[in-house]
Design brief:
Blueprint (H helix, E strand, L loop, with lengths): L1 H8 L33 E4 L5 E2 L4 H8 L3 E11 L33 E11 L4 E4 L8 H12 L3 H5 L4 H4 L1 E2 L31 E4 L5 E3 L12 H9 L3 E4 L10 E3 L4 E4 L3 H6 L23 H10 L24 H10 L3 H8 L2 H6 L9 H13 L9 H9 L2 H8 L7 H7 L14 H14 L13 E9 L5 E8 L2 E3 L9 H16 L10 E4 H9 L2 E2 L4 E2 L4 E2 L2 E7 L5 E6 L2 E3 L5 E3 L2 E4 L3 E3 L32 H6 L5 H8 L5 H10 L5 H11 L37 H9 L4 H10 L4 H10 L3 H14 L34 E11 L7 E8 L2 E6 L2 E4 L8 E8 L4
Parallel strand pairs: 6-11, 14-20, 15-23
Antiparallel strand pairs: 1-2, 1-3, 3-4, 4-5, 7-8, 7-9, 9-10, 10-11, 12-13, 12-19, 16-19, 17-18, 20-29, 21-22, 24-25, 25-26, 25-29, 26-27, 27-28
EC number: 3.4.19.12
Protein name: Ubiquitin carboxyl-terminal hydrolase 13
GO molecular function: cysteine-type deubiquitinase activity; zinc ion binding
């Protein structure tokens, strides 16, 4: 028999591998479904790629790859028999057959259930089975490979101890960090980079208190790298990311060590700049608190989770929960809402077979595959089945808690999707709680990047905002448009309808504090939703406004209106802020959010009769103090990395050609410049002296925009376009890249490499424009024809689905806790005319949906009929 098995396996020996260091063995979950060794059909692990497949999907992998040898894993779980004496549980019997390093997918009580594991090799296509272990009869290589697979930790258990959080070491600069006594105090909000005025991805240097932007990311987000530049100028090594400071620590980076580090003295270092991190309130994922003021938050937890009510569990299609992986409820709630939208269902679940059939060889790393997998898991009903009648009778006859434990809802695990969508993200890749609104925007970004050339379900959220900026002195105006996916509504305390009650509570609270008595029962501010909308639409001052009419800084005001209305409207209530002492503060408010919303009165009208536009001029270039006197010489001699020039010249290239190469590649290093030289060697002016493009060309600008965002219709600087086109990129592609990255040359270059399909997409949009009606839905406030193009009919602009501004509430996400970095999220979704609460793996009919305590609300557009 041994010879027979050896001969049988000889043709397949080249395809059988032993897992090496770094190989992940997916033996706990299928790459295409949520089947596991505990499922009825078990799990098949490929002995070459170590990917796991359920019974329905293993044949596909065999046909696609030709891999024939799989290890079939099956875990049998059964209830223990009770002993005759005393009726207690007998000791767990393992029978020597528990050898899989797996997490149980069921929440079994270890004292009441036992399980045993079964493994065998299966050879396709004939399904020939070889039971394991079988040391005597199998070739040595096969035995070693089987043992390695059985003893390897499951893929995600292996990742956890190697995550970036665990690897972080204490910085060698932490103990001896020198801090300048320069009087710098950091305010709790309103931060911006000191060099480019960016307001996101900001880092505080722990030596001198400089607030500067971080590096740019591959997706066009991030900053301009001024924090790193500051280190190169000063050698001040440590910086902390401003929006990550919690009572438990903060994200700290060491420029000198070039990695994320720990600072045991971070509290002292932050207090040097007026930041008291130790006073911040704490919360937990499961609702248990350590602070001494539990009453307002406990009440919130009870109301939002509908505690104390006998909620009826629901099962079937669309009623599957998602397991909490540890502070992952922000992901669960967002994904539940997204897959309640028909466009996402159609894109990922409707195209399930096509996505699976055309998935890459490693489907665990494919965004569409993992989205389709989660969508099918939530909508198929396959993982949300009610208990059988016989099981319900057994529940009454036997000890109730045991059977309840067996038959309660289990939900599915989104671990594979979470690992994929959070990869490389400093926040979402951690095990900390995150902001559900930020994760929603992150998912929309990922959906857009992975939908090139196909239907983009996130189109339903996209809309255009018209911003009207007016110079207060000249009364001239400028209209610009920007793309957005969500409106953020402030919660104005001054508009509370129970102001007298709030004032009386504040008096009682102060009296109790002075007399050392227990505080009174808290009172929540009740704010009308109309007041939130009013605060959103009111004019706001524009900081650092530069008037092109006056050619100087002046006072300016900005108002925002809807240039188009999305099919699905996302509304975030701005409940979170910072106190003056840097303590994160959640506004304890209730808002009477309506079920129906009419925003037609907020539709933009464009330039009105009698209004005069601001001139389209750029603000003057402000040079740093130390170079202002040499401004003319700076224009004559551009900034060129001479070290890179000499490095290229030593290779034998002409000096002037080397200077041009370094200049046209934006001083990005000799390797990039070398590639430029190779691409331009045959040009007749290759060795000619460098001729600078004009730097005084007054192109269209965002001079009157306070943020300097890339506005629709504005062209990037010609010199930046010239640099990219000189590197061989098409002009239209270069312009799109610069617009998408706020005219940042380095980020634009990376954008080009990550969007090679941009040209094809533009052609497709142009073809679509020929078939679209030429109605102008943007300029006419009464026009509500659904359009998938930009309102002005420009096919190269953003795709929007404009229509009437009447909406109905269909879902909302609620947060419990003192900060978005702690606490817990649940969501309520209206399905089949009833509100349903999704609380991790539990899915129940809602009795009293707490619509007034939500954080993010989702509306769908009503038909015009």
């Amino acid at each position: 028999m041994a010879a027979d098995l050896g001969e049988l396996l000889v043709p397949y020996m080249p395809t059988i591998r032993v897992p090496r260091t770094g190989d992940r063995v997916f033996k706990s979950e299928c790459a295409f479904s949520f089947d596991s060794p505990e499922s009825e059909g078990g799990l098949y692990v490929c002995m070459n790629t170590f990917l796991g497949f359920g019974r329905e999907h293993v044949e596909r992998h065999y046909r696609k790859t030709g891999q024939s040898v799989y290890m079939h894993l099956k875990r049998h779980v059964k209830e223990k028999a009770t002993g005759a004496a005393g009726g207690g549980a007998i000791p767990r019997r393992r029978n020597g057959k528990v050898f899989l390093d797996l997490e149980l997918n069921r929440d079994f009580n270890g004292e009441d259930y036992e399980y045993e594991d079964e493994a065998k090799l299966v050879i396709f296509p004939d399904h020939f089975e070889i039971p394991l272990p079988n040391i005597e009869e199998l070739p040595a290589l096969v035995t070693i490979a089987c043992d390695a697979v059985l003893n390897a930790p499951s893929a995600y258990k292996k990742q956890e101890p190697e995550s970036w959080e665990e690897e972080i070491q204490v910085s060698r600069h932490a103990r001896s960090l020198r801090q300048l006594d320069n009087g710098v105090r950091i305010p709790p909000s309103g931060w911006k980079c000191q060099k480019c005025e960016m307001r996101e991805n900001l880092w505080l240097n722990l030596t001198d208190g400089a607030v500067l932007c971080g590096k740019w990311f591959f997706d066009g987000s991030g900053g301009n790298g001024h924090a790193l530049e500051h280190y190169r100028e000063t050698n001040y090594p440590l910086a902390v990311k401003l929006d990550t400071i919690t009572p438990d620590g903060a994200d700290i980076y060491s420029f000198e060590e070039e990695e994320a580090v720990l600072d045991p003295h971070v509290s002292e270092h932050l207090s040097h700049f007026g930041i008291d991190m130790l006073q911040m309130q704490k919360g937990t994922e499961n609702g248990h608190h350590t602070d001494n003021k539990p009453r307002p938050r406990v009440s919130e937890w009870e109301v939002i989770q509908e505690s104390g009510m006998k909620l009826k569990e629901v099962y079937g299609s669309g009623y599957t929960g998602i397991k909490n992986l540890g502070s992952s409820c922000y992901l669960s709630t967002v994904m539940q809402v997204l897959f309640s939208i028909p466009d996402f269902q159609r894109m990922y679940v409707g195209n399930l077979q096509r996505i699976f059939d055309y998935s890459p060889l490693d489907p665990t790393q494919d965004f569409a595959t993992q989205m389709a997998k989660l969508g099918h898991g939530l909508l198929s009903g396959q993982y949300s089945k009610p208990p059988m009648k016989s099981e319900l009778i057994e529940q009454v006859m036997k000890e109730e808690y045991k059977v309840l434990n067996w038959h309660q809802q289990k939900g599915i695990s989104a671990r594979m999707l979470k690992a994929l969508v959070s990869r490389g993200h400093p926040e979402f890749s951690s095990n900390r709680q995150q902001d559900a609104h930020e994760f929603l925007l992150h998912m929309i970004n990922l959906v857009e990047r992975n939908s090139a050339g196909s239907e983009n379900p996130s189109d339903v959220f996209r809309f255009l905002v018209e911003e009207r900026v007016q110079c207060c002195q000249t009364r001239r105006v400028r209209y610009t448009q920007r793309v957005d996916y969500c409106i953020q509504l402030p919660a104005p305390f001054e508009a509370a309808s129970n102001r007298e009650e709030l004032l009386a509570y504040e008096v009682k609270r102060k009296e109790a504090e002075e007399n050392m008595r227990p505080p009174p029962e808290p009172v929540r501010a009740r704010i009308p939703f109309t007041a939130c909308l009013q605060a959103f639409t009111e004019p706001e001052n524009v900081p650092d406004f530069w008037s092109s009419a006056l050619q100087a800084k002046s006072a300016g005001v900005k108002t925002s209106r809807f240039a188009s209305f999305p099919e699905y409207l996302v509304v975030q209530i701005k409940k979170f802020t910072f106190g003056v002492d840097w303590v994160p503060k959640k506004l304890d408010v209730v808002i009477d959010v309506p079920d129906f919303l009419d925003l037609n009165r907020l539709r933009a009208t464009g330039l009105q009769a009698g209004e005069e536009e601001l001139p389209d001029l750029m603000p003057p270039i402000v040079l740093p103090e130390d170079t202002r006197d040499n401004s003319m010489s700076s224009l004559d001699s551009p900034e060129i990395d001479e070290a890179a020039v000499m490095q290229l010249a030593e290779m034998g290239f002409p000096l002037e050609a080397c200077r041009k190469a370094v200049y046209y590649t934006g001083n990005m290093g000799p390797e990039m410049a070398f590639n430029w030289i190779i691409a331009h060697m045959e040009e007749p002016d290759f060795a000619e002296p460098l001729t600078l493009p004009s730097m005084i060309d007054p192109g269209p600008s965002a001079g009157d925009s306070p943020t300097g965002a890339a506005l629709l219709g504005n062209s990037p600087p010609e010199e930046s376009i010239a640099i990219l086109t000189s590197m061989g990129f098409p002009r239209t592609h270069s312009i799109h890249a610069l617009k998408a990255t706020n005219n940042n040359l380095e980020r634009a270059l990376d954008w080009i490499f990550t969007h090679p399909e941009e040209e094809e997409e533009s052609d497709a949009l142009s073809d679509m424009a020929d078939t679209e009606p030429n109605d102008n839905a943007f300029s006419n406030a009464n026009s509500h024809s659904d359009s998938t193009l930009s309102p002005d009919g420009d096919a190269s602009g953003p795709r929007v689905k404009d229509g009437p501004g009447r909406y109905e509430l269909f879902a909302f996400i609620s947060h419990m806790g003192a900060s978005t970095m702690s606490g817990h999220y649940v969501c309520h979704i209206k399905k089949e005319g009833r509100w349903v609460i999704y609380n991790d793996h539990k899915v129940c009919l809602s009795e009293r949906p707490p619509k007034d305590l939500g954080y993010v609300y989702f509306y769908h557009r009503l038909s015009s009929s």
